[in-house]
Amino acid sequence: MKALDINFTPVGENKAFLDIANQIRDNIEKGVLKVDSRLPSERELAEKFRTSRATVREALRALEIIGVIESKVGQGTFIKNISFSSMDGLFAEISKQTSPSEVFEARYAFEPYLAHLSALRATQEDFISLKSILAEFDTAIENTDIQQFEKLDGQFHYAIALSAKNSFLLHMVNIINNVRLEKLWGTLKERSLNPDKMKQYHIEHHTIYQAIHERDSHKAQLLTLQHLKNVRENMLGD
Fold this sequence. Notes:
By secondary structure, the protein is mainly alpha-helical. It has helices at residues 16-29, 42-49, 53-65, 87-95, 100-121, 124-142, 146-164, 167-179, 183-192, 195-213, 217-236, and strands at residues 69-72, 76-79. The chain has a two-stranded antiparallel ribbon. A hairpin with a 3-residue loop joins strand 1 and strand 2 (76-79). Helix 1 crosses helix 3 (53-65), helix 2 (42-49) packs across helix 3 and helix 5 crosses helix 7 (146-164). The relative contact order is 0.13.
């Protein structure tokens, strides 16, 4: 297959996935990319844009959500639609999406400390609430109900935030939970989840709860950070 003369330039750090999406759009508008044109691999795109594969993956999923591209297993990613009659509105939609990479950076900063505070401050009522949420995961895992699993995941981390007794950090968790409702986050999370991953996360949730219940604040903090890193790796890769 003849290599396409695609003009891509390095992207900045601020919402880089949107910059990548717009550059792909520009190449469609110029006629360089046509229907059924295959895009370079994620690795090649990361090199061209001088960014991470995780950021490239965010851009590709955003474009897939609005129907511009499609991924074919074992073949690659292809241009699906070059009609611009509604593209402005569609690109406006993805411009409102939050970068999952940025969300994880924020979660790394405060969620482990929330677990630390929870181990110090949680009440018996908090323990009962956390244990109740954990018990509900079993049905979601048994039925491979990804939407319910994601809902419970948000409730579990929110319950930890509540038990930390810090209203400002609780507000930050509310912001995170709003991002969970966005299409980009939901698509990436759904693609990353399978029965084995759901079981893995459930085990990790149990170990975090156990550390909190044992009042081991240091262990709770470390386990939460490792859990978030595992989720990010599965969702975004590098």
